[in-house]
Amino acid sequence: MHWTLAGFCGLALTSLSVALQISQKPRFYGVKTGHSVGIYCSSSLKHLNSTVKWYKADEYNTQKMEIQTDERITLERKDLIQNAFLYLSALQTQDSGVYFCKINNTWGPGTKLQVVRPIDLSATLHRSKVKDGLIVLQGLMLAACITAVLLRKHKLVETSDSIYEEPETHHIYEGLAIETCEGALYEDLSLYQTEGAEAPWE
């Protein structure tokens, strides 16, 4: 039992040792479109009759796809596969990803490549000014709408006030002659009484 555990530990250490023999430089690239980069993969041991392949993945823990050479991608090997190079030219944004070299069954740690478009400062400033202008225009339109609503409400209130008329107050003694006597007022009701007619209060 102890020998079995020791064997598994030795196998794990051997695998770790082999994995550490593969290195890649640099570990990260951040470049603009149109540029060229080279990724260097090296092994501390010389491998006879070995093969080297390059793979690309979107992220470190995603599926790796083998890279095929073309007019923009070239591979180079030196010193009995001890050193290998991957060259990418005329970079595009879709070239962004993680690149791994693989010698036989041993994987390299990977190189992260981030390709971005160059920023046009004048175009960025223009877009910023246009955006600010739209914000100001929206604010003015909102203020105009609020003002129109308030004016309409005020006009409706004035219209309702003009429709309402104060009732006329008629004096109950309208038509009667009012005379003054020593500073006091009295109504001469006798002017409106018929001769011989008695007042109802008599």
From TrEMBL:
Keywords: Immunoglobulin domain, Signal. GO terms for cellular component: B cell receptor complex; external side of plasma membrane. CDD domains: IgV. It comes from the Eukaryota. SUPFAM superfamilies: Immunoglobulin. The keyword Transcription does not apply. Residues 1-19 form the signal peptide. GO terms for biological process: B cell differentiation; B cell receptor signaling pathway. Residues 31-122 form the Ig-like domain. This is LOC107387651-like protein. It comes from Nothobranchius furzeri.
